[in-house]
Write a structure and sequence with these properties.
Blueprint (H helix, E strand, L loop, with lengths): L2 H27 L15 E3 L7 E3 L3 E6 L1 E2 L3 E4 L5 E6 L3 E3 L6 E5 L2 E6 L4 E5 L8 E5 L3 E5 L2 E6 L5 E6 L3 E3 L3 E6 L4 E4 L4 E4 L3 E6 L4 E3 L2 E4 L3 E5 L9 E3 L3 E3 L3 E5 L36
Parallel strand pairs: 1-3, 2-5, 3-6, 4-7, 5-8, 6-9, 7-10, 8-11, 9-12, 10-13, 11-14, 12-15, 13-16, 14-17, 15-18, 16-19, 17-20, 18-21, 19-22, 20-23, 21-24, 22-25
């Protein structure tokens, strides 16, 4: 082989190695979120209508949130900080990313004020792939209503990665393009202690790679009619200890674990042309 030919082949090989290496690096380390956490707000009473870009909270404490926002409300606190958001007739609509994002902190609690109606919706396509997304333990409660609409491509309504989701009270209404309420990873669990929950999902209704526990409240869950989805989907099983659970889906029927403290009825039906039993109007 001539030296010029060898050098040309060597150059092409090195070039391909560099290109492939850069591509792998970008794939592994890119952050495809559109969240901008530079606009830090320290007031404990936040009127979202005063802002035209993402609003970020970086300190622990309780924050009363009012008004409307066409961007994201972001929590990026220190690891020891607990953050509580009290939603008082809030309307968050982000067409490019998640509506509420918990990036860091010890825990995030979202509480609806009495008689308030709060709407959170997302859009686009992001690594924060839910209308309410959290990388820290998430609790929802209150005496009002939180309406969640997950509109991202393959997006979810309420989701965490390896962190617990707990619902204690209030009215939670979820409509989503994929799973309604989801805990990814193996370390998180979903616990429902109370409240009234409506889920209408184009994926699984409630999905946990860990476990799900129903201790109380009323849960009405509709999974997708697409194959491979169900109303309740877990890797480690789900338990019903109390409350009312009505779950309807077209596939992958899963029964509660034997240790449940409440009797359940699980039905599997085939060749039903019109599923009219498990339909309800999600949003008034």
């Amino acid at each position: 082989m001539k030296r010029e030919t060898f050098n040309r082949i060597l150059f092409i090989a090195l070039f391909l190695v560099v290109v492939i290496g850069i591509t792998i690096f970008i794939f592994l380390f890119k952050n495809d979120s559109n969240i901008d956490d530079s606009n830090v707000v320290e007031d404990t009473s936040i009127n979202l209508s005063d802002y035209t870009k993402d609003v970020t909270i970086k300190k622990g404490g309780t924050y009363v949130i009012t008004g409307s926002l066409d961007n994201a409300l972001v929590v990026k606190a220190s690891n020891d900080d607990e953050v509580t958001l009290i939603l008082d007739n809030v309307n968050i609509k982000n067409d490019d990313d998640a509506g509420i994002v918990g990036i860091s902190g010890k825990s995030l609690t979202i509480k609806s004020k009495k008689d308030s109606i709060n709407v959170v919706s997302d859009g686009g396509e992001s690594s924060y792939d839910a209308a309410i997304y959290s990388d820290i333990p998430l609790t929802l409660e209150g005496e009002g209503t939180i309406r969640v609409s997950g509109n991202q491509k393959d997006g979810e309504g309420i989701a965490t990665k390896n962190k617990d989701i707990t619902i204690n009270s209030g009215i939670i209404e979820v409509k989503s393009e994929d799973d309604g309420i989801n805990v990814g990873g193996e370390d998180g669990a979903i616990t429902i202690n109370g409240g009234t929950i409506y889920v209408n999902a184009n994926g699984d209704g409630i999905d946990s790679n860990g476990s799900i526990v129903f201790n109380g409240g009323r849960s009405f869950i509709m999974g997708s009619d697409r194959g491979g989805n169900s109303a309740i989907d877990t890797d480690k099983g789900y338990t019903i200890n109390g409350g009312v659970v009505v779950a309807c889906g077209s596939d992958m029927v899963e029964a509660p674990v034997d240790g449940s403290n409440q009797y359940s009825l699980v039905l599997s039906m085939h060749n039903i042309s019109n599923n009219i039993i498990c339909r309800w109007k999600l949003f008034r």
